[in-house]
TrEMBL record:
The chain crosses the membrane at residues 20-39. The keyword ATP-binding does not apply. The keyword Membrane applies. InterPro entries: Cyt_c-like_dom_sf. This is Monoheme cytochrome C. Keywords: Membrane, Transmembrane, Transmembrane helix. GO terms for molecular function: electron transfer activity; heme binding.
Length: 162
């Protein structure tokens, strides 16, 4: 009887072993197929007819690259004026022209901003271009007018009677 039980147990373990091997093989094949489809998604059955993103072409002709319309440099949005190209060449290498345009400052603040960028952001020495750039920025991007009225002064206030 003990021999018969041992054989049944042995057959049950062999059957379990075969099932484990079969499940492992199926999982391994699925994992390999998944990795393959991730590497080459063109083999997928779930293809789309249209690309998800629109392809934008950048002008390649030199005259389109620095084109100016209505006094605005199209690529950067800078106002066309003396010093614009020096500003484009030195400022847009590191950041967007929009960052320059939105920061309206006076001459002193532009100088301190440039000094700060040179000390902390590895901005190179602008040499003679620094004065040209600052003049361009102060002329075309001065501080905006105050949005709120100033505090009232020299007013004779009176008490309201109830």
């Amino acid at each position: 009887m003990k021999k018969h039980t041992n054989e049944k147990l042995k057959l049950a373990f062999q059957e379990l072993y075969r099932k484990i091997i079969l499940v492992s093989a199926i999982i391994a094949i699925g994992a390999i197929a998944l990795v393959y489809f991730m590497v080459d998604p063109s083999l997928s059955a779930f293809k789309k007819d249209k690309p998800e993103t629109e392809i934008v072409t950048i002008p390649t002709r030199e005259d389109d690259f620095d084109k100016i319309e209505n006094g605005i440099h199209l690529r950067t949005g800078f106002v066309e004026a003396p010093g614009m190209m020096e500003t484009v060449q030195n400022c847009t290498n590191c950041h967007s022209s929009k960052l320059v345009i939105q920061n309206r400052m006076d001459e002193e603040r532009w100088k301190s901003t440039i000094k700060w960028m040179q000390e902390t952001q590895n901005l190179w020495d602008l040499g003679e271009n620094e004065e040209v750039i600052i003049n361009y920025l102060v002329t075309n991007y001065p501080p905006s007018k105050k949005g709120r009225r100033e505090v009232l002064t020299d007013i004779e206030w009176y008490q309201l009677e109830e």
